[in-house]
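In this section we walk through a basic example: taking a raw amino acid sequence and producing a predicted 3D structure, encoded as discrete structure tokens. The instruction is simple. Fold the sequence below.
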Amino acid sequence: MPAISSSPADQPLVLAARSGAVLTLTLNRPGALNSFTGALHGELLAALEAGAADPEVRCVVLTGAGRAFCAGQDLADPAVAPDPTPGAAPRDLSEVIVQHYRPLCLRLRSMPVPVIAAVNGVAAGAGASIALGCDIVVAARSASFIQAFAKIGLVPDSGGTWLLPRLVGRARALGLALLGDKLGAEEAQRIGLIWQCVDDEQLQPTVQALAERLAAMPVKALASIRAALDDALLLDWPAALAREAAQQRELGLAHDYREGVQAFGDKRTPQFRDR
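The resulting token sequence is shown next.
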């Protein structure tokens, strides 16, 4: 893991850029492979909260500056680095999980709009978990995913233990987590870990086109689909059917359903607006 390497004082740790209804958030610690510190966590969560509150934002893209998406936790961060003082008590790593990673993971999974991870380079440790926690993951062909936790005596966090077996099954999840081998983007797509692998030069235009497509869709329904699929993993069959009925009732009362049906009948492009 890289040592702490701060961005220049005049550079934010998260760059936010709007293009129409698409908000792109770029992790901006390229000298440290965009690894997490408390400050980076704070800026990213604040940027996501701002996007969630902005009615003009209808899709969020999360990516990284430089040659990495995110290398996970910066192990030189004082919050996690072992105290070198002889006889010092070990760090309680649950504190950084509860204070930083848990709020970030919950916010990503509860955004009122779709979230795309544009994985431009290595996504390791918590960086891989954060990417996989997004709704759709598109990776450059040169990108890779590494479950690095076992190599330093830890378990996957940031939702990794929940996500991995649900994405690729128990056998592959255990292989990835126990061995910690680098998984290329092409293989990640082949085994169903991510949605799509594209040539490096096609990552930005592919993600932008996908984001604009999602932004033009009924995003309230898209967020409900995410929630329904996540919840269904924990429900039995009758409960899942009941949840679907409740969601259809709510969405059926909204503007976008009426607009979608009307546009279908009129043979025109619908103008969705709900969030």
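Looking at the output, two observations stand out. Confidence is low (pLDDT under 50) at residues 1-6. The chain has ten helices and ten strands. In the next section we compare this with other chains.
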